[in-house]
């Protein structure tokens, strides 16, 4: 247990996350952004409907495509107070997840 805790602390430091990480019992979302040709237009339409927390699947394509899409959405949504929740369904390795996180322009919105 002590080793796991130390590894968790190292991971949080690498990802520039606060420590200790206290998992939430419930994560709210009120909309889903599907894989569509223009995710920014779709997300803006959800904002127009009053949605403020959007879930998006990642990990189904290339890591760089996911980074580009999430960065695009964050830049489009940043002025609306909208947050993104990402679901990778364990499709990334630890190195891929770390690379993804470090490539985000606005990790504060994710």
From TrEMBL:
Residue span, Enolase C-terminal domain: 46-107
InterPro entries documented for this protein: Enolase-like_C_sf, Enolase_C-like
Domain of life: Eukaryota
Gene3D superfamilies: Enolase-like C-terminal domain (3.20.20.120)
Name of the featured protein: Enolase C-terminal domain-containing protein
Organism of origin: Rhodosorus marinus
